[in-house]
Amino acid sequence: MSPSASPARLELRAISKRYPGCLANDRIDLRIQPGEIHALLGENGAGKSTLMKIIYGVTQPDSGELYWQGRRIQVRDPAQARDLGIGMVFQHFSLFETLTVAQNIALALGRQAGTPQQLEPKIREVAQRYGMGLEPERLVHSLSIGERQRVEIIRCLMQDIRLLILDEPTSVLTPQEVDELFVTLRALAAEGCSILFISHKLGEVRALCHSATVLRAGRVSGECVPSQCSDLQLARLMVGDAEGLEASYPKVAGGLTRLRVDDLSWHNADPFGTSLRNLRLEVRSGEIVGIAGVAGNGQDELLALLSGEVRLAQEERARISIDGEPVADLYPDARRQRGLAFVPAERLGHGAVPELSLADNALLTAFQHGLLSHGMIRSHKVLELAEEIIRRFAVKTPDAQAQARSLSGGNLQKFILGREILQNPRLLVAAHPTWGVDVGAAAAIHRALIALRDAGAAILVISEDLDELFQISDRLGALCSGRLSPLQATGQTHTVEVGRWMAGQFASPQDAA
Description:
Blueprint: E1 10-19, E2 22-32, E3 37-42, H1 48-55, E4 63-68, E5 71-73, H2 78-84, E6 86-89, H3 101-109, H4 116-129, H5 145-157, E7 163-167, H6 175-190, E8 194-198, H7 202-208, E9 211-216, E10 219-224, H8 231-239, E11 257-266, E12 276-284, E13 287-292, H9 299-307, E14 320-322, E15 325-326, H10 332-337, E16 340-343, H11 358-366, E17 372-373, E18 376-377, H12 379-392, H13 409-421, E19 427-431, H14 439-454, E20 458-462, H15 466-472, E21 475-480, E22 483-484, E23 488-489, H16 495-502
Helix pairs in contact: 3-5, 11-12, 11-13, 13-14
């Protein structure tokens, strides 16, 4: 991108923000030019979210200055940010599923929306202009994840956006949808729109972004041109020389079948849920099987059936078996007695109780492993387990009495995973094990999973991160609309093929073994 004599679209000078016990932003400088795609990188807790909230008017800085097109401003709230031309697409979409695309966009535009007859042609025009096919009259719940993201982006573009902030925009997209999104973003940048791109996916940052600012511990640790850096160089800017960043794990063949899912079909009565159809799956001892898929294609339903949160009738108990024993009608504690450990997708509220201490959270799933005696809790054993998890998995916390809610996402994830691994399971089912965590925490989690695999456990990982699945899985498959693709050795497939599976392009479920 050629240098410009015009003022920066957005400039931050010495922005600082302090919370009790935490300096979230420490004199941060940032410049974004018109037409520039600028990456903001950093590990969990580096200060990215706070900085975005300051730019978008959600939070006010304690000190420092913001300049918009050369003019000093104070962004008091998101409404003023939108008036200036700043739009933001959050990682978790804010759409009403029972309303149409046009109705959702009308809510954002207010009086500017006009009548439906006036708004719908405008939506089609913007969608066609930027290569984002979208029908204004469709209900949001009928859209794919990629299409919902288009609604969020078009909703911003309808407001004459000059700076678009995207928070982890590719985390739930198929590879094909990522390619389509990048075409749109490049078209926007070519017209002069500035884009601030927040992502943990370093390969995508290198492919898309003109420049990058890296945060570490609330400060700017470096600036670079991503296309001139390797993933490893970017990772080291983010987390330093953390162990395992260069890890490339060997692929192995599994042993005896530990988990078997045999022609499993299950009807979901929830109109917004997904029913499962003829799933067949085997996970063997000493291997990791990865299941890819865009959110909402049956992952939650499969996890609930495997964990025991949803059970089948007695006559269908053989649909799921562990070490040859039918378990589909058993409760979670009975399945745990048979060697199952489980890492759910939702950390707080499902994987851990926010208000409880780490020690008490360790007890929740490990109580069958010597933590009780004659119905009484052995408090010292519980504390010892929590402290061992903290030590072995490098969990950053004051002590084992800290509340679960006080930990960062990456550290809580390490604690939950450590709690399950230290129970020495024969079978581990893990959902999105590194969702939203930085590259350093992700490397530590991957090492722990590989060590458990090498100790002989069977591991099933369900994730939306294809890079992660290719890195750690020995075999791969994908879920789409409740159907499971055939499983393929990781070394014998590639991201394009798995992307097709994620879109439903694979043989009939009866052929998936």
